Amino acid sequence: MANAIATAHEHAHQHQFDDAEQQHSASSLGMWIFLAQEIMFFGGLFLAYLAYRTAYPHAFVTASHHLDVQLGTINTAVLITSSLTMALAVHSAQLGKQRLLLVFLVATLVLGGIFLGIKSVEYSHKFHEGLIPGPFFSVVSGDSGQQQLFFSLYFAMTGMHALHMIIGFVAILFLIVYTLRGKYTAAYNTPVELFGLYWHFVDIVWIFLFPLLYLFGRH
Amino acid sequence: MQAQESRTNYLNANYGIRSWLLTVDHKRIGLLYLGSVTFFFIIGGLFAGAIRLELLTPAGDLVESDTYNKLFTMHGIIMVFFFLIPSIPSVLGNFLIPIMIGARDLAFPRLNLLSWYIYLVGSSFTLYAMVTGGVDTGWTFYTPFSTSMSNTNVIPTALGIFINGFSSILTGLNFIVTIHRMRAPGLTWFRLPLFVWAHYATSLIMVLGTPVLAITIIMVGLERGFHLGIFDPALGGDPLLFQHLFWFYSHPAVYIMILPSMGVISEVITCFSRKRIFGYEFVAISSLAIAALGFLVWAHHMFVTGMSVYAAMIFSFLSFAVAIPSAVKVFNWTATLFKGSVSFEAPMIYALGFIGLFTIGGLTGLFLSSLGVDVHVTDTYFVVAHFHYIMVGGAIMGYMAGLHFWWPKISGRLYPEVWARIAAVIIFLGFNLTFFPQFVLGYMGMPRRYHAYPDEFQVLNVMSTAGASILGVGYLLPLIYFAWSMRYGPIASSNPWRAAGLEWQTPSPPPTENFEVTPIVTQEAYTYPVQEVTVG
Prior knowledge:
Chain A has 219 residues and is an all-alpha fold. Chain A contains seven helices and no strands.
């Protein structure tokens, strides 16, 4: 009996922590610090965008007309909805409702998949229209070079964002597997909570990317 | 003695290669790092030796200029990214921070092991690039040379540095969370050892600076590999944007190298002066001030790029400002020595050497922050001498001080003190002979990064090369006697220096769990003099 209690106690937290509460607060702080470095990571790209947007406002507006606002808007809606389902997943996990947790995780996974699907359709359009920077860039105009800068940034920024989506997509798969195994309870659901923070962060990056790349300067 | 031999500690808790490669014990991971950074220190040192050998004579006779370009590039990359940045944090920080704060381990032990593997993967890419032809862009990777001109292995090298960055980020993250969340009962922020404060400040830079380098490397890679033209002037892109982004990380990176050393010096100076540190709070807060101000001075590397004169004046002012917290430390260490009962064990010789060399390095930094002087000495050996006084005279002296100071704790054995003192003096003399002439050379106008030079510079260059060989001998000695002491050194007691600090209250070497009972802290740091208490 005493042994069983000791084992249960050990499972509640790892050996370096005094109790589960300390473990949870450490993990949570760790995630916030990770997100801080993510902000700096994307910050470099946003800085480059800002510098060139200020230097070449006209070319950037012209180039942004090649982007598909309709698909971009749909994707924005898809992503915001996925943030909602993720928030509901965290909520369900905290209440210990494992079935609901599973439903919302799958919903988030599907919405994330739709976003990536639409994004790849957009990329293939750009490819066929000859908007990939480099030797095959097909825009012919006086400011073609500066428009290439816009598309370089477009692909770098949305590409890095998509990479974060793909990482998130894989992480949700893991969360789903562990949920099916009944690992997350009202007492222990830190991974779901922390992944929620990550997912919202990736969503917020898109909330900045969408107007900067698709909307500004279009009337 | 017999009891000490048979006591279970982190070294003899289990044996075999698996128990090391899969360990999550922060002390063992510290030793894994010790092995790997020593390896890279030797490689980087060999490149330096080749450089100094070429510069022995004015003619470019030992290697072609292209080869020379690769030599200084690879020397810089190896030393900066694979030795100096991980050295103190990953070896001593890893080993000591949990013990100093009375914790059983870092907050995320598996992440800690992952950092080491990331370091290995990153360094393998870079080593591969070097074995298959090397890279010649300088460690700074300036565009457009790195993106479109150089036909060397830029991509694999850059990929290695990119990957290695995550090791740095995760280590910093782990330290910050550990220091926030894992302190022993009673260990308030202002009771923390200054070593821990210094690592906290270092970790902030690692976490907030490194990702900017990462994205910059990605942009260079995309431009070189996929013709995305972010820095390409032909498209209207701005190569100077690269320099801004690069130095936004790479200047603070200098503080990643020097701050942990400063932490070591605070521990060593107090121990061998038998005194509480003078102005504890000022030394602690100055670490944070250096980290914060360090993010705002990057453009002093770019004064000759034609940037706006107003921006240049602001960056000049801020570069002067960062000297204030640095000077606070130097003055407080000196004041700690005042009326202390100072003794000159090997760690203390390194620490005193650090104070002198760091002061020279720091003051010449002020020359370089002055707009007029900087234009005169930009890209000369004056700059080379300045940053070697900081990185070698500062960072490595601190690393050596720390290795000696905590060696009894790490290995459970004493190193031979006489040899260690001899080595410390040799390193100090060899260092100054190597780099002081370079200040003069630079002031006289010898540019850096050329394999040939006019005849009148030869005397000073011969001095420098002679100094480098002395320095090499100085570094070889500790390698030998540390290895010797692991087997033959006398057994160390738990507190051979009679030092304050929690790490000296647990046996040498510590048990896997660090403490049998979590300590409760009731005192401030550095309560010297310490009564001798031997545990275990």
